[in-house]
Amino acid sequence: MVDAEKPSPPGSKEVRIDSPTVQNIPLTYVNHVIVHGSENEIFLTLFQVAPPVVVTEQELAVITSVPANCIGRVVLTWPKALELWGILGNKLRERADREQAATGSAQSETKDK
Predict the structure, then answer these.
(1) Whole-angstrom distance, CA of residue 49 vs CA of residue 69
(2) What is the per-residue DSSP string for 8-27?
(3) Residue 91 to residues 56, 84, 97, 103: CA-CA distances in angstroms?
(4) What's the rounded Cα separation, in Å, for the pair 96 and 88?
(5) pLDDT above 90 covers what percent of the chain?
(6) Of 35, 106, 107, nearest to 75 (Cα)?
(7) Which of 30, 20, 37 lies closest to 75 in space, CA to CA?
């Protein structure tokens, strides 16, 4: 997330970040997020909620809540949060464009037949 057009302030320089290997860190799906903000930061708390399997109406009747397993908590400065928002937006647009192109080509193949 380097801004190539923004010059480094005097007395500083840009250096590469050596990211550690993350192969041993498990991937976990997140299906519930709580977002809080302060004047200078934004806080994301990430959860995985696994609703119980319900078989009968009686089982459903006694359920009043489901457990949420906290996967992680992240704090970002507002500028970094906006940068992340932009990156996520770009990725979502790219995916939507690919899906639209795939749907469009599938529809045109159907019309050709």
Answers:
(1) 6
(2) PPTT-------PPP-TTSPP
(3) 41, 11, 10, 18
(4) 12
(5) 56
(6) 35
(7) 37
Q: d(Cα 88, Cα 95) in Å, to the nearest integer?
A: 11
C-alpha span between 19 and 1 (Å, rounded): 13
d(C-alpha 44, C-alpha 89), whole Å? 17
CA dihedral 63, 73, 90, 13 (to 10 degrees): 180
The first and second tokens of residue 41, run together, are: 């930061």
- Dist CA 57 CA 65 (whole Å): 16
pLDDT digits (tens, 9 = 90+) for 51-101: 888 889 998 899 999 999 999 999 999 999 999 999 999 999 999 999 999
